[in-house]
């Protein structure tokens, strides 16, 4: 499949997706979501592809919905249908992919673009990044999982503040708030994110997939349900090649060679 709105590069098991509509700060359209979904389907199926990195071309990371796509759609435009066929499946594909997804936020990150970033497992930001919810700026309520992740990452009161006031945080403020894992100077942030994605791709990705399942589950269950689920997952991970290799390498005092199975 050829892509018109994104760039896709594969290196050392890492699939790097670059949102590529720089003149519009990589604003999202149904087509962008479709192209990204196609990549995620491919990554899900191919055992050689073991980590994903998402970033943006140019000054912005992603300005959320391309407002020119939804402008003048008339009273019959279904926001529900639009979300259910574009950004919701994309956020779901990221969350359910049993492989690590890293986000390198290079610039403005707003609206559904913020939802996209927050759906990823780990976020690194440039000092030049700018985070805003944007929804209230155009009279909307949050979508693409923003109201799910924000209170969990930065607390309900800070989430309300960001959502109600459309406050902007730069990369450093976002790291302090817990919205991103780390912030780096603009010149190095992408290399740092690439190094992380490469390291994760060489890790026991089956174990990472199980870990991601456990973390997803933990967001909505009681402690006893969670330890029960952990036990089930450990039974799966404990019978993998990577577990055997990890223990053998430890005993032999050498670096393990993980395969992701
Ligand atoms: C844009 C956009 C944009 C088009 C910048 N669209 N062109 C879901 C379902 C259905 C409907 C609606 O929404 C949703 C979910 C959502 O995502 S709602 C939130 C939608 N996003 C926004 O409201 C963000 C609007 N943009 C901004 O607030 C600013 O542009 C940000 C903070 C992103 C960047 O600010 P600046 O650094 O000052 O840059 P800029 O404003 O000059 O923007 C650069 C260019 O990008 C500019 O084009 P131009 O031709 O004038 O240079 C903007 O018009 C364009 N752009 N966002 N969402």
Keywords:
single chain, 4-stranded mixed beta sheet, 261 residues, Lyase 2-enoyl-coa Hydratase, Chain  A, domain 2, alpha/beta, 6-stranded mixed beta sheet, binds ligand LHQ, 2 domains, 2-enoyl-CoA Hydratase, Chain A, domain 1, globular
Q: Could you please describe the fold and organization of this structure?
A:
The protein folds into two domains: 6-201, 2-enoyl-CoA Hydratase, Chain A, domain 1; 205-252, Orthogonal Bundle (Lyase 2-enoyl-coa Hydratase, Chain  A, domain 2), CATH 1.10.12. α1 (30-45) links the parallel β2 and β3 (51-56). It has helices at 30-45, 67-70, 79-85, 87-96, 112-119, 146-154, 156-165, 171-177, 186-201, 205-218, 223-237, 241-251, and strands spanning 6-11, 14-19, 51-56, 60-62, 101-105, 108-110, 122-126, 130-132, 169-170, 182-184. α1 (30-45) packs parallel to α4 and α10 (205-218) packs antiparallel against α11. It is 49% helix and 16% strand. By secondary structure, it is α/β, with parallel strands linked by helices. The model has no long low-confidence stretch (mean pLDDT 97). It is globular, with a radius of gyration of 19 Å. It has twelve helices and ten strands. It has a six-stranded mixed β-sheet with strand order 1-2-3-5-7-10, with helices on both faces. Strands 4-6-8-9 form a four-stranded mixed β-sheet. The longest helix has 16 residues, at 30-45. The two termini are 27 Å apart. Residues 24-25, 27, 63-68, 70, 79, 82-83, 108, 110-112, 132, 134-135, 137-138, 140, 143 line the site of ligand LHQ.
């Amino acid at each position: 499949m050829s892509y018109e709105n994104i760039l896709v590069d594969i290196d050392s098991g890492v699939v790097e997706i670059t949102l590529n509509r720089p003149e519009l700060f990589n604003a999202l359209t149904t087509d962008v979501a479709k192209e990204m979904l196609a990549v995620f389907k491919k990554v899900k199926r191919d055992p050689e592809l073991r980590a994903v990195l998402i970033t943006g071309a140019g000054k912005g990371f992603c300005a959320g919905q391309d407002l020119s796509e939804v402008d003048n759609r008339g009273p019959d435009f279904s926001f529900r249908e639009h979300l259910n066929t574009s950004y919701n499946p994309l956020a779901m594909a990221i969350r359910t992919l049993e492989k690590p997804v890293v986000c390198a936020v290079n610039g403005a990150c707003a609206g559904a673009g913020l939802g996209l970033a927050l759906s990823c497992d780990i976020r690194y930001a440039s000092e030049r990044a700018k985070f805003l919810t944007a929804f209230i700026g155009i009279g909307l309520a949050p979508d693409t999982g923003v109201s799910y992740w924000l209170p969990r990452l930065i607390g309900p009161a800070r989430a309300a503040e960001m959502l109600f006031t459309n406050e902007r945080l730069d990369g450093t403020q976002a790291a302090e708030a817990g919205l991103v894992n780390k912030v780096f100077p603009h010149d190095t942030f992408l290399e740092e994110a690439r190094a992380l994605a490469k390291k994760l791709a060489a890790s026991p990705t089956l174990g990472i997939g199980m870990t991601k399942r456990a973390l997803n589950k933990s967001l909505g269950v009681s402690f006893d349900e969670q330890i029960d689920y952990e036990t089930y997952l450990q039974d799966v991970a404990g019978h993998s090649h990577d577990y055997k290799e990890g223990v053998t390498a430890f005993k032999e005092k050498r670096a393990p060679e993980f395969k992701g199975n």
